[in-house]
Amino acid sequence: MAPPAASTIDRLGVHDSVSAVFPPEVLATALEDLSLSVSVIGDDEIADCDAVVTLEHREAYLDCAWIHSIQAGVDRFPIDEFEAAGVGLTNSSGIHGRPIGESVASYLLAFARRLHDHVAHQQERRWARPAWDEAFTLSGATACVVGTGTLGQGVAAVLGPLGLEVIGVRRSSEPLPAFDEMYANDDLLEAIADADFVIATVPLTDDTHHLFDEGVFDAMGDDAYLVNVARGPVVDEAALVAALESDSLAGAALDVFEEEPLPADSPLWDIEEVIVTPHAAGFTQDYYRGVADLVRENVERLESDEAFVNRVV
Q1: 279 in catalytic set
Q2: Where are the domains of the chain?
Q3: Which end of the chain is more exposed for a tag (fewer CB within 10 A), N or C?
């Protein structure tokens, strides 16, 4: 698809919703060398902009020419409405692989080396060593990464050097670098059967909603851990809680949830072998630089009448 005409975009707004991830001012400053006018905006200033960089959706975006999401996932945007209105939508796919990969590695290391227990004990000023058979090393363990896009490949690139065997699950069983073995989606239950860690990195679609359900948890070993760094609704949380409380799974590390923030009465807060993080696995001090690079490249493509990179609509 061709980008919007360069003549239709004069002012680029950095919506203040990005403040949930980084200060909007740092991104606006990083983009101040563009030929466009760039400023931080709130909801009441969207109408004055031709393009907006944002975390959240607003109905007023349907009157803009181009919207850029600072996340890779675009499930919060009404794709059909954007398409009908002729609004270009791009995302930040490609910048999150390494941070997500390192976050996943930190979860796995925490479980293996019992770091989450030690942190909890520190809060209680309690000197308590793990049982002789609790701690383990990651070398020789198997991680099954479900979803082999940017996030999944970033996870595989970090876990492989730690000595794990990394299995991938995607549409086809064609091999990819950094994965030791590949399964097609239809063979998911076979792929996860012997995995020590099952890691969700799939986008949220109709097909992946509650992909990780009771059947998947039954197929996993009772000594296996689930990690979700994708989107909350790809996991059936009620089924996950039931599996954890019945010791059908060893534990879970969850960065995303069906409802965010995670409600205070969620049982996930209190299950001993669950690590909860606040949708922050992709956070890094360089986040805004990656977004700036993508926006800058697309402005240059806009001016040379080339197709946008990371175009969704």
Answers
A1: yes
A2: 6-95+285-303, 97-276
A3: N
